[in-house]
Amino acid sequence: MRAIVTVDRLSKTYKDGFRALRDVSLDIEEGEILALLGPNGAGKTTLISALCGITTPTAGQARVGGHDIVTGYRAARAMIGLVPQEIALEPFEKVINTVQFSRGLFGKSRDDALVERVLRQLSLWDKHNNRIRELSGGMKRRVLIAKALCHEPRVLFLDEPTAGVDVELRRDMWEVVRGLKESGVTIILTTHYLEEAEAMADRIAVINRGEILLVENKADLMRRMGRKTLQIDLVQPVEAVPETLAQYALELAHDGHALLYHYDTSGERTGITRLLQALADEGLNVRDIETRQSSLEEIFVGLVREDAA
Where does the ABC transporter domain start and stop, copy by copy (predicted)? Predict the structure, then answer.
């Protein structure tokens, strides 16, 4: 699949000398959902702002649909929809007028059928004559998405689209994003809710201190860097891990009622069989066994800590 966004050694340095982006290179494939993850101040919003023409990079190049973001700004920007973090809407304007006006900003002719389709897709049509001030926070965020989609962009940037939205509305937004992908829109998502990235993204990009640490298929990343934890529930609790089991680096849990064993899923041998035999030899009776996979959040935290070391 070809790249619709290409970033080549893009940098941004401010007048005070702060380098927000450091030689960022990244290819975003057409039709994918890419989650751009990083701590506060990592460079996520700066990268999006550069690609959307809000800020000018100081070095490097980037193209959207083959159009340079600097020399071909208008053509590149016409292909982009942007949903910013901040809810900046005219409170006394009607929903439908707000969306139609945004379409006009891109020089598009009036298309009532398209605007209605976008609003229906976002479950906003029944609110189309409501004023913005009458909407909930979640509905206002949907209006931001409608504004970003009304000129039919091929690339959609979602900068913290579910910030401050309750869990139910957040899951509704996930469904909206999946629907947009199915319609052929390429989506770049930044989020602090890592379960959001884990649920929706095809690939993960991690940025920290203005540098891209990795870009990888989500499943491959979790398989490569993830580890599993085996929780062994004991019939009788123990006060400490027996010295004879020291080689397994077990952890005590639940006031001694369970032992935790961490192992690498990519290894040829997990050591579980030997561990269970060692437990039996030690006279520890097992009540139950449960395994769990490392989450994307645990992998992300580990990457950022490693980069900061």
Answer: 5-234
Q: Helices 95-105 and 137-149, interaxial angle, to 10°? A: 30
Structural fold of domain 3-223? Rossmann fold (3.40.50)
- Which amino acid, 282? E
309 has a pLDDT exceeding 60: no
Tell me, which fold does domain 227-293 have in CATH? Alpha-Beta Plaits (3.30.70)
**CA-closest candidate to residue 154, choices 30, 6, 35, 1:** 30
Burial (CB < 10 A; 0-12, 13-18, 19+), residue 21, is: buried
Share of the chain residues as helix, strand and coil, in percent rounded to the nearest 5: 35, 30, 35
Q: For residue 250, which of 223, 297, 286, 222 has the smallest C-alpha distance?
A: 286
Q: Output the pTM of the full model.
A: 0.75
What does the block give as tokens for 75? 């053509």
